[in-house]
Design brief:
Strand order of the largest sheet: 3-4-5-6
Radius of gyration: 20 Å
Structural class: mainly beta
Strand content: 35-45%
Distance between the termini: 43 Å
Order of helices and strands: EEEEEEEEEEEEEEEEEEEEEEEE
C-alpha cells in the first residue's frame, strides 16, 4: 500500500454535530497514513499507528492536547511492522507485530502479525501470542482481559475460522470467546466490550475475502457462543432475526456498512458508517432503536488539496414506534 500518499490527520470535532469545527490534534509533517487510534482510560493521551521514514508501521503516542508526540516501537528492525495497539489497565501496551516473519499458507507475501506486549515507554517488548496466522484488533474487556480476533488455517475450513479469543493481559489463559466450531460469523473485527455489561460486546461482522467493513452486531456470549446463538441485535435491524448464512463474502451486498464501533452504552454507539453504496463514509451516532444520526463526513480530495466541508442532509431518522425511554 502507498502509505506515504495520504493527507490525513487526527482531529477533534466540536461541537459534535455536522456543522462542528474540526481542530487538528496531530498531523504528520509529510504525507503519511495515520490509523488505529486508541484512547487511554484517563482520556489524556492516545495511541495510533503510522509508518516511519522507511515505510515500516510503528506505534506512536500523543497527548490529548496534541503535545508530547513520540514513537514507542523501535525503528531499527528491517521489514518489521508494528500496529493496532491497545492500552492495558496496568499501564503496559499490547500491539500487533510482523516480527515473527511469517506468511499465510495460501500467499506467503501476506505477512502475518501476532500479539506482542511492551512497557508504557516502549521497552521490554515480548511476544505473547504464538499462532500460525494473524491476530487482530486487541481491546480491553470490562473484567480486564484482552479481547482479540485470531485466524486459524491448518486442518480447518479457514475461510470460516476467525475466532474471537480472550486472554489475561500477560498472555496467559488464552481461550475462545465467541465463534469456536462455527461457520458464522466468518469474522468479527473491531470488537469492543459494552460499558457496564459483564459479557456484551459489539463488533463488525463480515466475510473472509471482503475486508474489515460489514454489519454492526451486538453479541452476548452469556446467551450462546456459536453461530447466531449469542446475537442480541444487528443495527439497524431491531426485532429482526439474524440468519447464520454460510458465505465467503458474507456482507458484500448488505447495507449500511460500518467500521470501528465505539460503544457509549448498551443502546448507543459511535461508528464509521456508509449508509448506501453511493454514500460517503461518515461518523454516526447509532442506537438499538435503528436511528442513524450523521455527526460528520468529508469529501475525498486529491493529495494535499484543501478539503472544504460540504454539509449534506442527514439520513432519515427512524424512531421505534414503541417510543423507548430516551433517558436510558
Amino acid at each position: 500500500p502507498k502509505v506515504d500518499t495520504w493527507d490525513n490527520e487526527i482531529a477533534v470535532l466540536s461541537p459534535v454535530r455536522p456543522q462542528g469545527k474540526l481542530t487538528t490534534l496531530f498531523k504528520p509533517a509529510s504525507p503519511r497514513l495515520v490509523t488505529d487510534v486508541d484512547l487511554h482510560f484517563n482520556g489524556d493521551k492516545l495511541l495510533f499507528s503510522m509508518p516511519d521514514a522507511k515505510k515500516n508501521w510503528q506505534i506512536h503516542e500523543v497527548r490529548a492536547d496534541g503535545t508530547g508526540w513520540r514513537q514507542l516501537t523501535p525503528g531499527d528492525q528491517p521489514e518489521v511492522h508494528c500496529y493496532d495497539s491497545c492500552y492495558l489497565p496496568d499501564g503496559r501496551i499490547v500491539f500487533i507485530s510482523t516480527a515473527v516473519l511469517q506468511g499465510v499458507p495460501c500467499n506467503a507475501s501476506v505477512i502475518v502479525g501476532m500479539m506482542y506486549q511492551m512497557d508504557a515507554d516502549g521497552k521490554n517488548i515480548r511476544q505473547v501470542c504464538f499462532e500460525q496466522d494473524h491476530d487482530y484488533n486487541p481491546s480491553v474487556m470490562n473484567d480486564g482481559r484482552v479481547l482479540y480476533l485470531r485466524w486459524d488455517y491448518t486442518d480447518t475450513p479457514h475461510v470460516w475460522n476467525r475466532i474471537l479469543m480472550s486472554m489475561n493481559p500477560d498472555g496467559t489463559g488464552q481461550s475462545a470467546y465467541y465463534g469456536g466450531s462455527s461457520y458464522w460469523p466468518n469474522s468479527v473485527f473491531y470488537s469492543r466490550a459494552i460499558p457496564r455489561q459483564p459479557t456484551k460486546f459489539v463488533g463488525i461482522v463480515t466475510g473472509h475475502h471482503e475486508g474489515r467493513v460489514g454489519e454492526l452486531v451486538v453479541f452476548d456470549p452469556a446467551k450462546g457462543t456459536q453461530e447466531t446463538d449469542g446475537v442480541v441485535q444487528r443495527i439497524p435491524g431491531r426485532g429482526q432475526r439474524v440468519e447464520p448464512r454460510i458465505e465467503d463474502k458474507l456482507t458484500e451486498h448488505s447495507w449500511p456498512k460500518f467500521a470501528h464501533p465505539w460503544p457509549l452504552s448498551d443502546k448507543y454507539f459511535l461508528a464509521a458508517g456508509k449508509p448506501e453504496p453511493e454514500s460517503l463514509w461518515g461518523i454516526y451516532l447509532v442506537d438499538v432503536f435503528d436511528n442513524m444520526v450523521l455527526l460528520r463526513e468529508e469529501e475525498h480530495q486529491a493529495l494535499l488539496e484543501p478539503i472544504p466541508f460540504r454539509p449534506r442532509p442527514a439520513p432519515p431518522v427512524i424512531v421505534d414506534r414503541a417510543k423507548p425511554d430516551r433517558k436510558d
